[in-house]
């Protein structure tokens, strides 16, 4: 399912510039869409970062984004004094519109990849994703934040 490469395999390449702990590149089982997760650091705790669905001419563009943005998330977490490192998910969409069924399948594919990190990486919404997507990922993995609230949770939130 996954092609996982550690930083030691990438010395002197694009990834070497950002020094990530782990890069995972997977073609979604349902969609065939390349899904990239870059974990920059878990030294202080699990990596956190957004999940973006974006069009790109190649999966390599998504890889560049994931690497740069995961490193930036490590910096942001450090500046905010959070016990987390940085990570990022990028799903590289094919040209043209994505129909609702394909998009729903992509959320499931993404949850498979996020779940494979077993808590070392948690994701949240970014470009092309939102709280409803994070709710699905959370329900399947337990590793997503900024989720849509169900009716019961909305009522409790209003009472506080």
Report on this structure.
The chain is an alpha/beta fold. The chain has a single domain, classed as Rossmann fold, CATH 3.40.50.10860. Helices cover about 35% and strands about 25% of the residues. It contains four helices and six strands; from the N terminus they run ββββαβαβαα. Strands 1-2-3-5-4-6 form a six-stranded mixed β-sheet, with helices on both faces. It is globular and about 40 Å long.
**Helical proportion, percent range:** 25-40%
Count all strands and give the number.
6
Oligomeric state of the chains in view: single chain
Distance between the termini: 44 Å
Biggest pleated sheet: 6 strands, mixed
What shape does the CA trace take?
globular
Approximate strand percentage: 15-25%
- CATH class, please? Alpha Beta
Count, helices: 4
Rg: 16 Å
Number of domains: 1
Topology:
Blueprint: E1 3-6, E2 22-27, E3 34-39, E4 47-55, H1 59-79, E5 85-93, H2 100-115, E6 121-125, H3 131-141, H4 151-159
Parallel strand pairs: 4-5, 4-6
Antiparallel strand pairs: 1-2, 2-3, 3-5
């Amino acid at each position: 399912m996954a092609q996982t490469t550690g930083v030691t395999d990438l010395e002197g390449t694009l990834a070497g510039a950002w020094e990530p702990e782990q890069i995972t590149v997977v073609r979604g089982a349902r969609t065939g869409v390349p899904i990239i997760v870059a974990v920059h650091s878990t030294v202080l705790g699990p990596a956190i970062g957004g999940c973006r669905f974006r069009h790109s001419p190649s999966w390599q563009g998504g890889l560049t984004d994931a690497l740069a943005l995961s490193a930036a998330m490590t910096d942001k977490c450090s500046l905010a004094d959070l016990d987390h490192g940085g990570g990022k998910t990028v799903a590289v969409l094919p040209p043209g519109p994505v129909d609702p069924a394909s998009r729903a399948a992509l959320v499931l594919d993404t949850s498979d990849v996020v779940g494979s990190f077993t808590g070392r990486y948690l994701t949240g919404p970014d470009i092309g994703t939102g709280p409803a997507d994070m709710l699905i990922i959370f329900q399947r993995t337990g590793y997503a934040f900024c989720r849509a609230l169900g009716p019961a949770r909305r009522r409790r939130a209003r009472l506080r």
